[in-house]
Every structure is written in structure tokens, then in C-alpha cells.
Specification:
A four-stranded antiparallel β-sheet has the order 4-3-6-7. A three-stranded antiparallel β-sheet has the order 1-2-5, with no helix packed on it. The longest helix has 17 residues. The termini are far apart. By secondary structure, the protein is α+β, with helices and mostly antiparallel strands. A hairpin with a 7-residue loop joins strand 6 and strand 7. The protein contains four helices and seven strands.
Length: 160
């Protein structure tokens, strides 16, 4: 009997509210929800680096295997000198699988990825990757040390 009385006591206020009676907490909750919606969303922090993916050129590696050289433009907007390879992580995929770095002549690449550049400076970077076939490649660049894995640049290229 005590269980039935407790159940009735708990259900009674819920029944009254459901029948059209408004509790005072509902308008306050609705007002708080509207206030939260009106606040501007927090913007993602801007990166200290700007990268563009400028193109891709098919070539061969030291062993004569097909490879691709991807061209990037890297701008250091941080407060310290750094290099592309110390600031960014570039990944190239073919058929959904990340490609391995390719070994090509140094004349093909220069030293753009390891050269430190001062704040505000821009440099050209070239990196080579071993191709597995003639299908398109997708290139992604993200900040090397980032908590949110924000993509700095992405592009797709045909290598056929």
C-alpha cells in the first residue's frame, strides 16, 4: 500500500503539469536556452601557419618508380622562426592509403621543407611521394602540434 501511495504522490504533479499546468521552471529554462543560442559561437583558434597546396608533378624516384612531387607554399605567422617540417604534417593518399616518401634528386626538392623561416616570411616547399598506381591523390596538411587537428589545406590531383 505504501508503494502505491508513493507512486501516486510522484505521478500527481507530473499529471497536472502534463494537463496544461505550466511550472515556473519551464519558462526560465526556455529563456536560458534562448540566451545560449544568442551568444556567438566560439571561433576556432587561428593557426600560426598558412599553407596552400599549389600543384603536383609526376616524376620518377631514384629506382625509376613512379612518384609525385607536391608543391606547397608555407607562411610562418608565428612569433618564432620555424620550418615547414617542424610546423606542419603533410599527408598524401592514393586509394585511401597514405603514400610513402619518395627519394628523388635534391635538385627536384631543394631544402624548403627543412629551412627555417622567420616570422612573417613565406617559402616554397616540395615533397615527393611514391605512387602506387595512376589513380588520383588527395593531399592534406594539418598543424603538426594541434589539439583539434584543424586542416590547414587539402586538395586532390590527377596523376594519370
Amino acid at each position: 500500500m505504501l508503494v502505491v501511495a508513493l507512486a501516486a504522490a510522484v505521478a500527481a504533479p507530473l499529471t497536472l503539469t502534463a494537463c496544461g499546468g505550466e511550472s515556473e521552471a519551464e519558462p526560465e529554462a526556455a529563456a536560458e536556452e534562448q540566451a545560449q543560442e544568442a551568444e556567438p559561437a566560439e571561433q576556432a583558434p587561428a593557426s600560426d601557419y598558412a599553407v596552400t597546396i599549389d600543384g603536383a608533378t609526376v616524376t620518377t624516384d631514384y629506382d625509376g618508380n613512379p612518384a609525385v612531387i607536391v608543391d606547397y607554399t608555407f607562411t610562418n605567422n608565428s612569433d618564432e622562426a620555424t620550418s615547414f617540417s617542424a610546423a606542419c604534417y603533410a599527408k598524401v593518399f592514393q586509394n585511401g592509403v597514405q603514400l610513402e616518401p619518395a627519394f628523388v634528386t635534391s635538385e627536384d626538392l631543394g631544402n624548403g621543407s627543412i629551412a627555417e623561416i622567420k616570422p612573417g616570411a613565406t617559402t616554397q616547399v616540395r615533397s615527393a611521394y611514391t605512387l602506387t598506381d595512376q589513380s588520383d591523390i588527395s593531399v592534406e596538411v594539418e598543424e603538426l602540434f594541434s589539439l583539434d587537428d584543424t586542416m590547414l589545406a587539402e586538395a586532390t590531383f590527377s596523376v594519370a
